[in-house]
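Prompt: Have a read of the protein record below and flag anything odd:
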Amino acid sequence: MTKRYWYVILTYIVMQFSGILFIPLLYFITPFSKQESMVTWTIISFLVGLVIILFLMKPDMKTAYTRDASSAGMMAVWVITGVIMAYLAQGLAGVIESNVFGIRPGSQNTEAIMSIARAAPVFMIIPALIAPIMEEIIFRKIIFGVLYKRTNFFLAALLSSFIFGIIHGEPEHILIYASMGFVFAFLYVQTKRIIVPILVHMLLNSISVIVQFSLDPEQIERMIKQSEQMQMILIGG
């Protein structure tokens, strides 16, 4: 793995933990409330992190695509196909979680994000746009890409998807996140364009945000009780 890739991963880690120091500091030196401080710093840190990561990845962006990379038209087809594949994979993973392991549908991580987004709608740009770009660069382009060069697809996708699931902080839903990780890795290999899993990831998260933003918590809870398969739209990536 090149130094640039390590710097990208380090940037992501620093960004994730920067709030421990800077959110209390922002709360102390500004008239913001605790939630406003958290939202403000999270948006700032993600934007700065994204700029740094894209700058570090400039050499990769300049590298010419391989001859068999998907065309723009095929990319559109694969994006639509990828969304369908991701929902099917999540549905199967949800059935296994519910029926085999007795795990209750729904995501605390997503619920926490939506609670913040309802109070500060601008926060939605993070799960809908910024996070998918960063996560696909790190978990598919870098981690999966490096492993895929040294192992086979299944092992590389398994390891990168496991890490992808762990960083979301919901080990009970590791199958859900891993299923998405496998689909994203497949799309990356099939199209040889990282933009395809990025767009699919964005669409999944955006649909999750829009659906939950249009419903109140009581409606979501009622729908979860009515159908264990609501995880297909309630858990983004």
Summary: Residues 228-234 have pLDDT under 50 and may be disordered. The radius of gyration is 18 Å. The chain has two domains: 1-63, 68-234.
